[in-house]
Amino acid sequence: GRGRPSVSGPVDGESRRSLYISVSRNFLSPFFKVFDRPIPFTTQGRRSTSNVPAQSLAMMNDPLFDELAKRWAKRILRSSEDEGWASKEDIIKALYLEAFARAPLPEETQRLLSFLGDRNDEDAWADICHVLFNVKEFIYLN
To answer: CB neighbours (10 Å) of residue 117?
Structure first.
């Protein structure tokens, strides 16, 4: 439609935070609506909060999270080469330290190793990063 922005957000490669993305009232982001972003037609004194299945589905299927998982995997693999981490376990430990500020439990490491199987490419690690984005411990702060 007329006036629709061609690109917007971190996926466009500009690495902008969503706080600074322009809002077009005619083309509201469905992703932000799922996460209770206020509609810009009226003022709102308090932001509503919800926890609905659509939020989890958005985090699993939105292109933003695919792109962020690929970037995280690429960065962690580059760090593993620079730091000399030789094993998959070391990479998993680094991911857990970044995501949760703790080392993975032995059963968590085993589950991710079995998920990886013989794969050790960037796409496999991006899948693991995407999984970690959707862990409740990542989403909610204690």
So the answer is: 8
Enumerate helices (H) and strands (E) in the chain, giving the number of each.
Answer: 7, 0
Q: How far is CA 71 from CA 10, 74, 82, 125, in A?
A: 11, 5, 16, 10
106-128: pLDDT as tens digits: 999 999 999 999 988 999 999 99
For the purposes of burial, counting CB atoms within 10 Å of the CB of 43, is it exposed (0-12), middle (13-18) or buried (19 or more)?
exposed
Exposure on the CB side of residue 89, measured as CA atoms within 13 A? 5
pTM (two decimals)? 0.73
User: Using an 8 Å Cβ cutoff, are 86 and 30 in contact?
Assistant: no
- Better-predicted residue by pLDDT, 116 or 3: 116
Tell me if 138 sits within 8 A of 104, measured CB to CB.
no
pLDDT at 41: 79
Number of C-alpha atoms within 13 angstroms, CB side, residue 100?
A: 17
What pLDDT score does 3 carry?
Answer: 61
Residue 81 three-state SS: helix
